[in-house]
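Case study 2.
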Amino acid sequence: DFALGSKKWKDALIEGGYEPWGNQINTDHRLFHLSFDTKRLFGSDHLQQKRKRKKLLDRDKTRGIKFYDKLDQLIESRNLLQRSDQLYSAKNHNHVLAEQLNKDMSEFCRNAEK
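Prediction:
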């Protein structure tokens, strides 16, 4: 295993390594981590990000109701709850299904907010 990065990354690296087998996640892999000095890497301890204002926060009270109605329709039409139950009750981990559920829910939220 390895990680690629620039000299700036190397100079800001504090530590890195592997977690013990089975630590934090039940898998046949060990977790690999790198920790960086954010001030050295980005020039600040705190990163500021501009956030777009969410449409859901508008003063229109009906927008939230419309959002949840649309979200409910999307969840039902794509059987999200049934697939979540399958994931929960499976005897073995199904990372593909978990990732698909995550992608679907993110897509549903974006579409419901339009």
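The first strand starts at residue 13 and ends at 18.
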